């Protein structure tokens, strides 16, 4: 079994890491692939804060020993559709795939490009970002389209990359919100400064 976890990771933070560790601990997959997106279909008009190479490097620091970071979507230089990535992975490394998503992504999954094809190719592991979230209605919407959803418990981590970019641009304290190595990398490369 291979778990796929994608995102903009702009910047990567401890919520991302908690989610991946929780899925890994719950499912004991053979492999975990972290996939930074080139351009998310949902963020095509939003300018990212860090370059592709910086996001890739931050992921490599953050997920060291947790999963393999892939540059596949970054090297494609095109909008990152999950269905295309899954087709590529299944073609090149046949396996049982699980797509790990946060609660925000679970809500929108039925609207994703070729959602039914995604659900035919993999099951979904949904992790909650905030405590007390009611995810069952969103899981049912996916299941109504033929998807299989597993709910994974994780420690709530209520911060987003958007909030972190704001904090970093104001030289705020991000200790405990991101891995120390990522914080050092951001400082050394002058990322997210106003």
What does this structure look like?
The chain has one domain: HUPs (Rossmann fold). 42% of the residues lie in helices and 15% in strands. It has helices at 14-27, 52-62, 72-76, 82-92, 103-108, 115-121, 136-144, 161-169, 180-189, and strands spanning 2-7, 31-36, 68-69, 97-102, 122-127, 149-152. The protein is globular. The mean pLDDT is 91.
Kindly list the characteristics that best describe this protein.
194 residues, alpha/beta, Rossmann fold, six-stranded parallel β-sheet, 9 helices, globular
How much of the residues is beta strand, in percent?
A: 15-25%
Would you give the CATH topology? Rossmann fold
Low-confidence stretches: none
CATH superfamily: HUPs
* Mass-distribution shape: globular
Topology:
Blueprint: E1 2-7, H1 14-27, E2 31-36, H2 52-62, E3 68-69, H3 72-76, H4 82-92, E4 97-102, H5 103-108, H6 115-121, E5 122-127, H7 136-144, E6 149-152, H8 161-169, H9 180-189
Parallel strand pairs: 1-2, 1-4, 2-3, 4-5, 5-6
Helix pairs in contact: 2-9, 4-6
């Amino acid at each position: 079994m291979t778990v796929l976890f994608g995102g903009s990771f702009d910047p990567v933070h401890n919520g991302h890491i908690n989610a991946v560790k929780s899925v890994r601990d719950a499912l004991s997959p053979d492999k975990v692939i972290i996939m930074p997106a080139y351009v998310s279909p949902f963020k095509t008009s939003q300018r990212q804060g860090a370059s592709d190479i910086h996001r890739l490097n931050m992921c490599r620091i953050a997920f060291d020993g947790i999963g393999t970071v892939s540059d596949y979507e970054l090297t494609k230089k095109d909008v990152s559709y999950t269905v295309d990535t899954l087709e590529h992975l299944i073609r090149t490394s046949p396996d049982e795939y699980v797509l790990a998503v946060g609660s925000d992504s679970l809500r929108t999954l039925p609207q994703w490009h070729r959602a039914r094809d995604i659900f035919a190719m993999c099951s979904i592991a949904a992790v909650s970002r905030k405590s007390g979230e009611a995810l069952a209605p969103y899981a049912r919407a996916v299941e109504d389209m033929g998807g299989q959803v597993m709910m994974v418990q994780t420690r709530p981590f209520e911060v987003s990359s958007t909030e972190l970019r704001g904090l970093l641009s104001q030289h705020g304290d991000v200790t405990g919100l991101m891995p120390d190595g990522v914080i050092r990398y951001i400082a050394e490369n002058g990322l997210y400064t106003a």
